Amino acid sequence: MAPKYGVLALVEAKPGKEQDVWDFLNGGREIVLTEPGTRTWYAFRVSENTFGIFDTFDTEEDRQAHLDGAIPAALGQHGPELLAKDPDIKLIELIAVK
Question: Is-above-0.90 flag for pTM?
Answer without folding.
Answer: yes
